[in-house]
Each structure stands twice: as C-alpha cells, then as structure tokens.
Specification:
alpha+beta; 4 helices; 20% strand
C-alpha cells in the first residue's frame, strides 16, 4: 500500500526523544541555504512550511514560516511561527544573522534603532535620512 504524504514526510525526519525542545532534522533533499524540500502531489514544498501546515492545519496567504531556532533544516512545529516577510526580516536583523545587521549606524551616522529604522524590500533604511530626502519643500 502506498504511503500517505504525512508518512513520506515523517520518514525523512529525525525526531529526538525530547519532542518539544530539540530540532527535528530534515534528512531529505535540501536547498543551497539548508531548507528542506519535498514534493507532495506534484507540488514542491519547503519542508518547514509543510510541517507547519501538517501540524497546525492552516497557512495564511502570503505568510512565511519562520524558525525560532535559526536552524533552516529544522521542521519541529514547536520551532516554527507564521508571520510576514517583514517579521522575518526584523527577526533576522535582531539576531544579527546577516551582514547588514552588523552595521549599527546609517552612512550619515544615525543609529539604527526600532524607532529610527524602516524595513523595505529586504533592506533597512534610516527614517531620519529617508524623511529628509523625501520631504516636500
């Protein structure tokens, strides 16, 4: 008898004894940055998105599934949160997981803070400089 999609998915996961706290490592096919992928009913899924859908039952249109553990190969539903791309970028910057996050001030010397920083199109901007540049005269 053929396996269900859920059985196929779980066959490619190493689940530790401590179900809630440790990462569930994806052993199947992975993308270059470490995210797992699986084909279900002729559709290619990111493994962590499929895990979130399988265990939580829904995904909002346009949402992303974020890893709280910062492990792209993890599919533990307790480590996954649904949110916007903006949430994902803020999380990435706050955890200093990209080169730009290490930069603490804009080119004009303003400090990047929550109040002074805007995130747009995968980049962050100093609101003080951006407002001056786009002000009506």
């Amino acid at each position: 008898m053929p396996m269900t999609p859920e059985q196929r998915f779980l066959k490619k996961v190493i689940i530790p004894k401590d179900l809630g706290h440790d990462c569930w490592e994806w052993t199947g096919s992975k993308m270059p940055f470490g995210h797992g992928q699986i084909r279900i009913n002729y559709k290619l899924w990111l493994a962590h998105r499929y895990s979130y859908l399988m265990f939580n039952g829904y995904l909002h249109a346009g949402s992303v599934v974020r890893h709280t553990c910062d492990n792209p190969g993890c599919v533990n539903p307790n480590h996954l949160r649904q949110g916007s791309q903006k949430d994902n970028l803020r999380d990435m910057f706050s955890k200093k997981r990209n080169w730009q996050a290490k930069v603490t001030h804009c080119p004009k010397g303003h400090k990047y803070t929550d109040e002074n920083t805007s995130v747009k199109k995968n980049s962050r901007f100093c609101r003080a400089c951006w407002c001056k540049k786009n002000a009506y005269i």
